[in-house]
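Journal club prep — side note

Before the paper discussion, L.F. wants everyone to see what a predicted structure for a comparable chain looks like in token form. Sequence:
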Amino acid sequence: MQIMVQGQGQIQVHPALPDGAVKLSRSRLIAPMMTRKSQHQDQALRDSPIKDVAQKNWRMQSVCVRRLWGSARVSRLLKVTNINRSVRQLQHKKVMEDNKPWALTSERGEGFVEDLTNIRKHFQILCYKDFLQNPQLHGPKIQAMLVWGKTPPTDPSTLRSLPSLKVVANGGVGIDHLDVPYINSLGVKVTNTPGVVSDATADMAMGLLLASARKIVQGHQISVDPNTTNHKPQSLMGVEVTGSTMGIIGMGHIGCRIAQRGKGFDMKILYHNRNRRSVEEEQAVGATFCEKMDDLLKESDFVVLAVNLSPETTGLISTRELNLMKPTATLVNISRGRVVDQDALVKALKSETILAAALDVTYPEPLPRDHPLLGLPNVLITPHVGTDTLSTSRKMVQRMVMEDDKPWALVSGVVEHGVYEDLTPIIKQHFQILCYKDFLQNPQLHGPKIQAVLVWNNIPPTDPSTLRSLPSLKVVANGGVGIDHLDVPYINSLGVKVTNTPGVVSDATADMAMGLLLASARKIVQGHQISVDPNTTNHKPQSLMGVEVTGSTMGIIGMGHIGCRIAQRGKGFDMKILYHNRNRRSVEEEQAVGATYCEKMDDLLKESDFVVLAVNLSPETTGLISTRELNLMKPTATLVNISRGRVVDQDALVKALQSETILAAALDVTYPEPLPRDHPLLGLLNVLITPHVGTDTLSTSRKIVQRMVENAVAVLKGQSIPNEVKPK
């Protein structure tokens, strides 16, 4: 059948469709032709491929279709199609909902904020009061508990009724209400939300401090009292905050944010913490560390408590500590009520031992209505609302439900003695990062989730005590080649792999070796010191006469990756290259860098103008260069060490340098590091020392981090490990 319709081209019967179905010449299905009275054709309508009709309604409204069927038939077709589509969408949504895990939560309004969108994206929600109606029915399906305001409770009875539970996600930092060891013993993870609450809590701390100092609550009460006649009573005389001294006890995330805000008031910031913050962190907020808390208490106008509750911090502030504070001082507590001995606080406030207290936390919460704290005029109390802002609440919920699937890695830190901040994105592609100092704040909470330790500059430590606190640990990934600081057999005995990063450090370390060699030979450090000394008059003193490097003989002890790279650089100076190694390199490798093998190390020592140490530290290489070896060297020779400090007997080296047995030494490594400030090596003019920075270039650091991560990921995924270290 062919029907010509003006403006639409040719319409023809489509052989693949039910009888009577028609198709435009563009191969667009319009609809099946059916009679008004035929149930069979009506069924064909519902069964035919009409998706394009529903998606392209405007085609259905075309003159062509209306001429064929009429407007009523078109409307009916659209209605049937839309109903079917809606049913399919609802069915799909129901299936997707049913696939989400169940989360047990506190009550809306009383617990979580009303907006539960973030939770519902990932979970089906069951409120605790509904759970209590039928624990036997609901318990087996619960996989997550989202704890907000300490509810739902995590007592043993509740936990035992949740056999499928995988995680207890706490809203907030403090987890003193959670028995973490017991929860972990059930195979259940515990998480909290550090970081996201810091700003809101710090704001609250400063708000309490200012409200107490300037008597804002009393001022408001007087202002709104209908009986008030004098709006500026003498009783509202406050305390100056700007320029005062604030002492912060507990310098974690929140403590640092409080210090930052105090700096904005030109306050002098003191702090006491279990671990001192880095110099950069102190300088950023202008904070001074007090090793003894007593010193902080004596000097501060405002003492702010920002510690976690633990056995060590329970009752931290009691009669003795309150007596150390100034009589004009205010105590601000935004941590936990039990950090303060409240009976002692009542006495101190009544006796005016201290001026005032501002508390967002008490014990219990709320206080009994007859508690003596409630009747004191010099106390300001809020009902534990430090984190209660809409923005922070949303962030907390998001962190609780979006706990990353990436495994956790324990790292030394970021910036000082740790990974450069610019390199952390490399780690974060595969891991969630926990810094060692934060781990120390609560090992019981953090330990079970750590699967990888990324060791940088020998930190985090891998002593038995630390390793035993990491029951889920799978890999210790070392940044660098040397693993003398790692007890590989012991670590392996725990079922933990050890990896390192050979190859990637070779060029930077070889550059450093040549840099030390050249700086020592040409007395570059002394030259700089003379050039910048304001008392210098002669810029070319005889004392700067150096040693010729080009054409000299360099002996390399340890011809691994790094040794070969050093030889390659020496070749560029037309140096004669000798080397001694446990295993001789191939002829091709020797020819590539023009190196000659010395089977006996003694021969190399006797002939070389520069002896470069590039060996790994082992029992065999400890003390490798001592009095005997130094006596074999030329009196015009220089010793360069870029391996490990203990490869050289430093006492013997001091004597050799003092007696001019050898000319000089250039060391990137010592033992210990750094040397004691009175060590004799530091006073010798013929020694050049750098602080173990052989691999410290941004490019190499990036490669090290990348390789550490690759090794760790391979272990966790059960893949072939690029650089596994095994006991010898």
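L.F.'s comment for the group: The mean pLDDT is 84. Keep this in mind when we get to the figures.
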